[in-house]
Task: structure prediction
Amino acid sequence: MPVVNRIAEFSADMTEWRQHLHTIPELSFDCPKTAAFIAARLREMGVDEIHEGIAQTGIVAIINGQGDGPTIGLRADFDGLPIIEATGLDYASTHAGKMHACGHDGHTVMLLGAARYLAETRNFSGRVALIFQPAEENGGGAEVMVNEGIMERFHIGSVYGIHNAPGFVQGGFYTTPGAIMAAVDTFHIDIKGVGGHGAMPHETRDPVIAACGVAQAIQTIVSRNHYALDDLVVSVTQIHTGTVDNVIPDSAYINGTVRTFDPNVQDMVERRLGEIVAGQAASYGVTAELRYERGYPATINHAKEAAHAAEIAIEISGDDNVNADAGREMGAEDFAYMLQQRPGAYLFLGQGESAGLHHPEYNFNDAVAPVGASFFARLVERSQPVSGA
Result:
């Protein structure tokens, strides 16, 4: 079964909505224009309840079906990124230094499209909870919404989400049972030495050399401290120090990311980072402080729900375009917090060839929005059929 006919009929509206949202990207929890646009569309559609101001600008909207039944949660994130857009589009960002470079504008429109169809047809039992979430990119909006009680307040029994996937076949889906995305941690290392003249290094305790030593030693965590078949990434992504060619600075800063799936591996990395920082600092005669911040946990699909979601995806896109056992990847996603609370699954929807996520030339493919909306709609109808239908 391809795109739902009714959704195809209003696909031009979805494109208009998406391209408008693309012009007004907002960051983290501070998304008032985006939230207002979503709420206005939901009111036009005639959904039964709209609850605003969750996690500052998040929204949960309710659509009642026919008769009693459970509540299925459908989630879309809607925040942008602090990136200067370089697409040259007629509908490029009008907010300087902000951009929808990860397709959250498209995710939002997929859920709005499903909402319009479900509010019109109501060919399901129980209820649908439409979860529009801020701060996926920074701030863990999903965790905040969970902590503010959306699962209990709206009696959500299961929850599903979609992310677009550049480079994967347009309109195809992939997912996997179990872990699909990694936990993400961040480390900060502040090194303090003694600066001085570049011509007299013997009078200094050089933080630049110490930073190089620390960065090199960190590489041994992956190569020598963990079992090779346990997925792990430890990347140094920033080193900042110095101001001029003839001055040895007095401090340096190192920053990086850690991606894991196993909490034991996560613990090992944090411990080894502490040991490396302390040991290297001593060897170079400087002081150093490690700050290790645990971020989003691993995104772990529930096996039954992932298989069910894959079956719905096959209905929409065909067996050849759905990979139900795609394996896991090292990116991270705060939808993990929702999956910790309720059974459900996270899927990727291919958008064909395009610039990659978080790239200044990225743009969501409007042709796949009706596919995602159709998936959400059929997921609801198959998960919560009307009694006797």
Summary: The longest strand covers residues 156-165. The mean pLDDT is 97. DSSP finds eleven helices and 16 strands in the chain.
